[in-house]
Amino acid sequence: AQSVSQHNHHVILSEAASLELGCNYSYGGTVNLFWYVQYPGQHLQLLLKYFSGDPLVKGIKGFEAEFIKSKFSFNLRKPSVQWSDTAEYFCAVNAHGQNFVFGPGTRLSVLP
Amino acid sequence: NAGVTQTPKFRVLKTGQSMTLLCAQDMNHEYMYWYRQDPGMGLRLIHYSVGEGTTAKGEVPDGYNVSRLKKQNFLLGLESAAPSQTSVYFCASSYRQGARYNEQFFGPGTRLTVL
After folding, report:
1. In this complex, which of A34, A94, A104 lies closest to B42 when CB atoms are compared?
2. Which end of chain A has fewer CB atoms at under 10 Å, N or C?
3. Predicted pLDDT of residue B19
4. pLDDT band at A100 (very low <50, low <70, confident <90, very high)
5. Residues forming a β-bridge with A57
6. Residue-wise pLDDT tens digits, A28-55
């Protein structure tokens, strides 16, 4: 069965700091990978996704993620965070023919 | 397009009461899902449907029932609510499960409190 782990439960950064949120999954086959963001009081929105090709994926709002197959990782990065990036971030994995599996989430607090 | 909508947005129940949450999507998606979101546990799949008239159990199905009588609607029922069902419930839909270029689209959520 698939599983997804996220390294940090809560990350606190100052504005302009760089961000990296870790995500690891366990599944040996081909997977689709996603990062979703949930702003306070809102629903989940897709930040970026990887299906195939270039392992460096660029998403909305300056976010990017790198798929490293050998490490089963899909870490999310942003070079300079803003206060408006305060949200909860979920990594998700979807193997062909199977349900989506979400990680437990990482809460990001950006201090102005 | 409205995308995925959910009603109600908030609800407070007493233990033992019943209720139905409604999810509707206007994207002609085949697959629909119900998740619950609890602090520190991410999203857990309750039930899902791969098409009109079909339903299947997810990771945490106990205490819930679902129905998919129409392609655009997916109902989640609690027959006898328990405090452990206090949670935020999200509905999602997608074209196909695990298919290339697949992604899930989420509704705004229903915050349920069971006293």
Report:
1. A104
2. C
3. 95
4. confident
5. A65
6. 788 889 999 999 888 899 999 998 889 9
Q: What is the mean pLDDT of residues A72-83?
A: 97
Residue B100: predicted pLDDT: 53
Per-residue pLDDT at B101 exceeds 70 = no
For chain B, give the number of residues. Answer: 115
The pLDDT of A1-12, averaged and rounded, is: 90
3-state secondary structure string across chain A: CCEEEECCCEEEEECCCCEEECEEEECCCCEEEEEEEECCCCCCEEEEEECCCCCEEECHHHCEEEEEHHHCEEEEEECCCCHHHCEEEEEEEEECCCCEEECCCEEEEEEC
B93 phi, psi to nearest 5 deg: -140, 160
CA distances from B47 to A52, B16, B72 (A): 28, 21, 16
In the sheet that B19-25 helps form, which strands lie side by side, from edge to edge? Answer: B4-7, B19-25, B73-78, B65-67
Contact (CB, 8 A) for A3 and A25: yes
Q: Which two tokens stand for residue B115?
A: 């006293």
Distance, in Å, from the CA atom of B37 to the CA atom of B51, rounded to the nearest integer, reads 24
Determine the residue of chain A that is closest to B98 in CA distance: A96
With an 8 Å Cβ cutoff, the interface of chain B facing chain A consists of 33, 35, 40-45, 48, 58, 90, 92, 97-109
CA-nearest residue to A88 within chain B is: B42
- Nearest by CB to residue A44, choosing from B41, B58, B106, is B106
| A residues 20..49 contacting B (CB < 8 A) | 32, 34, 36, 42-46, 49
